[in-house]
Amino acid sequence: MGFFKYVIRRLLTSIVTIFGIIIIIFILSRALPGDPVWFRLPEKATMEDYYAERARLGLDQPVIYQLFVFMSDLLTGNWGFSYVIAQDSDVWSLIVLYLPRTFEVMFISMFLAIGLGIMFGKITAKRMNSFWDYLIRISMYLILSVPAFVIIIFFVLLYINSPYKIFPLYGYKTVYYPDPTFITGFPLIDSLLAHEWYIFLDLVWHLIIPVATMTIVQMVAIIRQTRTSLLDAFQMDFIRTAKAKGCSNRRIVNKHAMKLAIPPVITISAMGFPIVMGGMVGVEVAYHFVGIGFTFREAVIYRDYSVLIAVIFLFSLLVVIFNFLSDVIIGFLDPRIRFK
To answer: Hey, what domains does the chain have and what are their CATH numbers?
Structure first.
């Protein structure tokens, strides 16, 4: 019953947080300088045209009234339409088109970062003060000291200055290739389900540089957390007892120490999710990988309120969901957390 109450409490907190985020992002979007109406009108439009279009879009109403209209529409599944970047197109259709592309990069890079981060973290902890420990730690601190956008630029410069153009730098697929048959909306999965192997291989080929960039950005924090958690676990009495009983180092690490090390790793991975989404904007713009991050940047430039709010809301919702799931998993693995 204690675990059930813990989950309900976390769920209620997450719901309140989501509604708070909606209100904040709506008000902040209206506070941005600029006006999307001017981007919709032709060059020779008059002030009468401007006011008529502004009234037609409902932007002449008080912000509080616009907020209530937006909230009521949002709860009924109406996300509005794009003001500028895809004029009068349904926002949800843009989300369905571009979000899966971003998700593929995000989740593939996250799984790789978690897997590689735990693996390298275990190596540095088991072989503390060895050559591999120093090599991994030095590499980790070098990457941590460099801003994420510098890593993005590094791959661009590496591509430009390299005589061998092995991997493509721009786009999510070859321009003259058709889009995969729409089944789930995720290009990789759709190309697999439709047995369009040449499109699948082309998509994977274009994903390598964006995925490598995002994996490097996420991996270093997981390595550091795994190493720290394992070294702390090695000091526990039950680990010493296991060693005294003659358990192998592999068994001690995998069966005993990792149980204590995993919850902090889950937490750091969930906390890093907003960084991943922020990094996707830079990755998509730099590599011209047209996904939801690229769309978000266009919405900011042209003050496309509906698209801007929808993207921030989705990203915020994902952050809240990931934090909620991490809290539930940690509460399940460690009963001390849920009874605090």
So the answer is: 2-33+79-338 (1.10.3720.10)
- pLDDT band for position 334 (50/70/90)? low
The sign one gets for the Cα dihedral 234, 235, 239, 241 is positive
Q: Are 173 and 199 within 8 A, CB to CB? A: yes
Cα dihedral 302, 307, 312, 315, rounded to 10, equals: -130
Task: Work out the pLDDT band at 318, boundaries 50, 70, 90.
Answer: confident
How much is the average pLDDT of 49-63? 82
Rounded CA-CA distance 170/283 in Å is 10
Long-range CB contacts for residues 297-300, cutoff 8 Å, separation at least 24: 298/85, 299/84, 299/85, 300/32
Biggest alpha carbon–alpha carbon distance for the chain: 86
Q: Which of 311, 91, 113, 129 is nearest to 220 (CA)?
A: 113
Q: Is 66 exposed, middle or buried (0-12, 13-18, 19+ CB in 10 A)?
A: middle
Q: Provide the token pair at 122.
A: 């275990």
CB count within 10 Å of CB 106 equals: 25
Q: Rounded to two decimals, what is the model's pTM? A: 0.76
Q: How far apart are CA 298 and CA 334, in angstroms?
A: 43
Q: Tell me the three state secondary structure of residue 154.
A: helix
Confidence of residue 51 (pLDDT cuts 50, 70, 90): confident
